[in-house]
Amino acid sequence: MNEDPYSPPSDKPVDDTMIDPWTAAKPVEPTDAPDLVVEHLRCTRPWVKFCSLAGYITAGFSVAIALFTMRKMLGHFSLLHVLLLGSFYFILAVLFIIPSLRLSRYERSITRLVVSNQIEDLEQAIAHQRTFWKLMGIMILIMLVLYLVTIAISAIVLLSGKV
Question: Where are the transmembrane segments (predicted)?
Answer without folding.
Answer: 50-70, 76-98, 138-159
